[in-house]
């Protein structure tokens, strides 16, 4: 199995050096480049096509959200894992809508960081149930943000797919969804694959956003 290739994008050189040292010392990972600005991150992502871009939110020239939007639009195989100072950074929701596959706080442990990169590289979303609930609540409560454009429609999906989507939005794993709906894990994966295709979503993170924007779930429903 080949190493997970990672591009580091952070305007603090010390932070990049810290992440590089960790990745270089960890079997199964390769650092392919470092970017100090959002614009540089976009350029290097196109040049190296890494499996994962570890992206800071706040950077000069172009912020991490716009860089993520461009990378995800132009490079379908590249996943972006956002780094934030706090787990409810005001820009996290926008980053997910831009195509990010999840986020980590900068004080995450080395094990959490490495596991997060592996998950995102494998096409999973790094959104824990607790964080999912708090994230959506933050953007639907007083003073919170709101989705841009009209609500997303779910007319193309089946009733069973709708049930699976709702459970994804609640943060359940494939195994937990299978147990909840009395299905095989393989069947759940098939439903998720169809949801991704029908809803034009990149991964589970995008499915969570779709579930919220369609009105299928709400903060109360995720409590």
From TrEMBL:
Gene Ontology terms: biological process: phosphorelay signal transduction system; regulation of DNA-templated transcription
Residue span(s) of domain Response regulatory: 5-121
Keyword annotations of the record: DNA-binding, Phosphoprotein, Transcription, Transcription regulation
Residue list for modification 4-aspartylphosphate: 56
Pfam families: GerE, Response_reg
GO molecular function: DNA binding
InterPro entries listed in its UniProt record: CheY-like_superfamily, NreC/VraR/RcsB-like_REC, Sig_transdc_resp-reg_C-effctor, Sig_transdc_resp-reg_receiver, Tscrpt_reg_LuxR_C, WalR-like
Domain HTH luxR-type residue range list: 150-215
UniProt protein name: Putative two-component system response regulator
